[in-house]
Amino acid sequence: MDYTSTILIVDDESDIRQMLQEFLAGEGYHLAFASSGAEALAQASSLIPDLILLDVLMPGMNGFEVCRRLRADPLLADRVPLSDHLDPGPRRTKKADRATGNSRI
């Protein structure tokens, strides 16, 4: 039996979710989507995805808070790599890198 990796795509903008879906659709992944922080937490808990592509600039519960809560969950903390898809421009901070587990050079 083959294993299909699951990617959870979290973004409040539907066009971004659609673009990522089109980009990843032919690669054989199981794709799941969330449009808010609360929805992301619910999806992550039920799916235990292999990867979460997380927008950090969302209304309500932003990506930093989502990431903090995911990292606090023993089922998700060490199993699910998080990747923010925020433009790595001047808005990016060390706090953002620490929250998502990314490193800066």
Description:
The protein has helices spanning 14-24, 37-47, 63-72, 94-100, and strands at 6-10, 30-34, 51-54, 82-84. With 105 residues, the chain is of the alpha/beta class. It has a single domain (6-100), classed as 3-Layer(aba) Sandwich (Rossmann fold). A four-stranded parallel beta sheet has the order 2-1-3-4, sandwiched between helices. β3, α3 and β4 (82-84) form a beta-alpha-beta unit. α2 runs parallel beside α3 (63-72). The longest helix is centred in the N-terminal third of the chain and has 11 residues, at 14-24.
Produce the secondary structure layout.
Elements: E1 6-10, H1 14-24, E2 30-34, H2 37-47, E3 51-54, H3 63-72, E4 82-84, H4 94-100
Parallel strand pairs: 1-2, 1-3, 3-4
Q: Main traits of this protein?
A:
single chain; 105 residues; alpha/beta; Rossmann fold; four-stranded parallel sheet
